[in-house]
């Protein structure tokens, strides 16, 4: 299996799982439910992953990055979620950007060869990126971590598990 095929599978599976989690959040109160006052809620997770996908896109294909006014302040690294849905973009807008940024990231990946994926990251990239493929690997891993946060909020709201039985 090629590096590109493996990365496409990871990014697609991680997003499909998170989409199933997010489908159960309906009201502004559910979207911003925090199991702890400093915990990330589902709306923040979706916005944060939007900014991360956009950032990774900017590293490997800067011309495909998008200006998302206010997103870095509300969802960037170090931002703190608030339980007020009105402090964020409308859920429909946010989910549109969430999906569009992943689609763009997957499109960038699809356009690259395995040789291009093995290229070093551009100067100024964070040190934890070893090559361009590592940006896509981190996107999938990072999404898994935040999916865990969203699923905890989902379960705290009384939703049944997506996998593994009918535990209450």
Task: Give structural attributes.
168 residues; 58% helix; globular
Largest sheet: none
As a percent range, the share of helical residues equals: 55-70%
**In terms of per-residue confidence, which ranges show pLDDT below 50 for 5 or more consecutive residues?**
none
**Cα Rg:** 16 Å
Percent of residues in beta strands: under 5%
Number of helices: 7
**Arithmetic mean pLDDT:** 95
Q: Which structural class do the helices and strands define?
A: mainly alpha
Order of helices and strands: HHHHHHH
Per DSSP E runs of 2 or more residues, the count of β-strands stands at 0
Which outline best applies?
globular
State the distance separating the first and last CA atoms.
40 Å
Task: Please describe what this structure looks like.
- With 168 residues, this protein is mainly alpha-helical.
- It has seven helices and no strands.
- The chain has helices at residues 3-22, 28-31, 42-60, 71-75, 91-111, 114-117, 132-156.
- Helix 3 packs antiparallel against helix 7 (132-156).
- It starts with a helix and ends in a 12-residue tail after the last helix.
Give the SSE map.
Blueprint: H1 3-22, H2 28-31, H3 42-60, H4 71-75, H5 91-111, H6 114-117, H7 132-156
Summarize the structure.
By secondary structure, this protein is mainly α. It is 58% helix and 0% strand.
């Amino acid at each position: 299996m090629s590096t590109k095929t493996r990365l496409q599978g990871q990014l697609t599976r991680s997003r499909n799982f998170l989409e199933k989690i997010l489908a159960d959040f309906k009201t502004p109160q559910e979207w911003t439910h925090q199991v702890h006052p400093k915990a990330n809620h589902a709306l923040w997770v979706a916005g944060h992953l939007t900014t991360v996908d956009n950032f990774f896109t900017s590293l490997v294909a800067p011309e495909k990055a998008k200006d998302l006014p206010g997103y870095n302040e509300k969802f960037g690294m170090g931002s703190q979620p608030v339980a007020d849905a009105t402090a964020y973009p409308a859920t429909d807008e946010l989910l549109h950007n969430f999906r569009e940024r992943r689609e763009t990231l997957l499109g960038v990946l699809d356009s690259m060869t395995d040789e291009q994926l093995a290229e070093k990251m551009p100067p100024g990239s964070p040190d934890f990126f070893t090559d361009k493929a590592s940006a896509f690997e981190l996107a999938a891993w990072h999404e898994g971590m935040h999916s865990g946060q969203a699923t905890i909020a989902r379960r705290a709201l009384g939703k049944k598990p997506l996998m593994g039985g009918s535990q209450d």
